[in-house]
Design goal:
The chain is mainly alpha-helical. It contains six helices and two strands, in the order αββααααα. It is about 75% helix and about 5% strand. A hairpin with a 6-residue loop joins β1 and β2. About 25% of the residues are buried.
Length: about 120
């Protein structure tokens, strides 16, 4: 895979993570939220849809041949967020605070950077 293709996949992951976790800011605070937090307001279906959208970043990791351990860690972040999302109020707070998609995009970026230096 070329460097350009790798960068393109990382860019897609970052864009998806930003859309889901940090598209909008709360004025006069450092807090940001995205579609994930809005979907979390819909019981069960919203959390399920959010988890499915988050799989897009895992898909990019798979296409980059990321190690299975990294992919499992990313899936664990999605699963944890899904479980937290099933708890009323706490799940809504977790959607804004945990930011699973940004966390997963960062994991992928860090892995690519480490793999490139070896």
């Amino acid at each position: 895979m070329t460097d350009k293709e790798i960068e393109q996949r990382l860019r897609r992951s970052r864009q998806l993570a930003t859309l889901l976790d940090g598209a909008w800011g709360i004025p006069h605070t450092p807090w940001r939220f995205g579609i994930d937090a809005l979907l979390g307001l819909l019981p069960v279906a919203g959390d399920l849809l959010s988890a499915l959208l988050g799989l897009g970043i895992v898909w990019q990791a798979r296409k980059l041949d990321a190690p299975t351990t990294l992919q499992v860690k990313m899936l664990g972040n999605i699963g944890l967020d899904f479980l937290l999302g099933s708890v009323p109020v706490i799940g809504d707070i977790a959607d804004v605070a945990f930011r699973k998609n940004i966390r997963n995009a960062k994991l992928l970026e860090d892995w690519v950077a480490a793999a490139g230096t070896q």
